[in-house]
Amino acid sequence: MALIDLFLARAVKRGQLTVRHFDGTEKRFGTPEAGWPNVTIRFTDKGAAGSIIRDPALGAGEAYMNGRLVVDEGVVLDLVALMTMNDLWEGGTNTLQPSRATRALESVTHRIGRINMARAAKRNVAHHYDLNDRLYDLFLDADRQ
Length: 145
Fold this sequence. Notes:
Elements: H1 3-11, E1 15-20, E2 26-31, E3 38-43, H2 48-54, H3 56-65, E4 69-73, H4 76-85, H5 100-114, H6 118-129, H7 133-137
Parallel strand pairs: 1-3
Antiparallel strand pairs: 1-2, 3-4
Helix pairs in contact: 2-3
């Protein structure tokens, strides 16, 4: 079973999601219910599922926009509704959050990016505040008043 299948089996309990994988296999998740969307999606390349696993909300959106995830039955709004109805915030399941590894990597990257070395700080200050005297000559007198 592919990793995306494990994720979707956990994420979709109500309503039905049918997934047509790149290799032609087809899997169904959830149980059809009145008032819940039934959606069929198709992956057009091998890497689409992996990008969704790494960061479900972002990966699915990008895959859809790039044509790597195609909604064959229903519309994209039905897919969004199906996933969010199964992952209500109040339920505390958070299946649409990025993986722990992705969140940890983003946290480390963010902290490293926030380090402002002395040299970088001087460069930032110079860029904003080191103005040429010619600018002041335009509107100040000889005493710089």
